[in-house]
Amino acid sequence: MNHDHPTPQLEADLRLLGLTFMAEQYSALATKAARDAVGHVDYLAGLTAGELKLRHDRATLRRIKSPLSDHQPTLRTGSHDYHVQPGLQAVAGDLQQRQHPDFGSS
């Protein structure tokens, strides 16, 4: 089976597999590969590299856009889980006193 033009089934299959970049670019890159006499393995390597770059870029954007959490615990809010590391509460209290001597006084 020799296709020199885009096939709807291949594109649909690539999208179903979650290979968005490949689905969008395989035809254009195949044309370029044929024109530049690029081998099959190099063509596939180029498609794969493009797919990986797209996924990396999307993951980076997701990390930038999503907050780490709705509430960031700080020494001031006292929202730490002191049971995870015994003695942390005493250290935190000492740090609060050093940074803000009037913090603990009423």
Structure overview:
- The protein is an all-alpha fold and 106 residues long.
- It has a domain at 8-65.
- It is 59% helix and 0% strand.
- It is built from four helices and no strands.
- It starts with 7 loop residues before the first helix and ends in a 7-residue tail after the last helix.
Number of helices: 4
In angstroms, what is the radius of gyration?
A: 27 Å
Please outline the major beta sheet.
none
Helices and strands, in order, run as HHHH
Low-confidence stretches: none
Summary tags:
rod-shaped; 0% strand; 106 residues; 4 helices
Structure summarized in a few sentences:
The protein is mostly helical.
Layout of strands and helices, then pairs:
Blueprint: H1 8-16, H2 20-35, H3 40-65, H4 88-99
Helix pairs in contact: 1-2, 2-3
